[in-house]
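Rotation project, supervised by the postdoc (A.L.). Task for the rotation student: set up a whole-complex structure prediction and record inputs and outputs verbatim in this book. Inputs entered:
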Amino acid sequence: NAGVTQTPKFRVLKTGQSMTLLCAQDMNHEYMYWYRQDPGMGLRLIHYSVGEGTTAKGEVPDGYNVSRLKKQNFLLGLESAAPSQTSVYFCASTARGSGSWDEQFFGPGTRLTVL
Amino acid sequence: AQSVTQLGSHVSVSEGALVLLRCNYSSSVPPYLFWYVQYPNQGLQLLLKYTTGATLVKGINGFEAEFKKSETSFHLTKPSAHMSDAAEYFCAVGYHMDTGRRALTFGSGTRLQVQP
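Outputs recorded:
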């Protein structure tokens, strides 16, 4: 049982390049989230998904797109990377998002640098 | 609107000493409060949470936190620090988004160092 995994662990991009971050979970969780973590700030929610085929915007969605084609995978895309998107990105999943405050399980993070 | 303030971005204690990590929150509704820990090169793990009931909450690895409504605080404590406690700790408050879905607002984190 791997939990939540993220690919890649590190990436350096040039301004304007595109890339996709992959999150995978093997716990059959319905809800998945993408956060970014910046120095001196807490984690901020980018996008989230409440089930296969559904996505929604979080607190800081601009410049990012997401897709949830399979229940176990949640992809975060940057179409045209900007230096302001230099950050550590975390994916998380939880069994359900309503009815109780279930624990969010986090991946190890992806450190992205945009030059 | 909800927010979380963690006082002290870095805290250093000696092994065996008391650990106290401070968290204050603001919330327009009764809060749901959480502490997460992040060990180096790992994702966040839930330490403990307060939703309803007893205001003193016990978590994993000997940590506990007390919800004090009058002080809008949810400080994290451990009586005796261990070297393995060195990590970054995040306080979070739960809220409902416009969609009705639940989400977390995180504080900026406190890095705990434990000196031998």
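Student's summary: Chain B touches chain A through 28 residues (CB under 8 Å).
Supervisor addendum: DSSP finds no helices and eleven strands in chain B.
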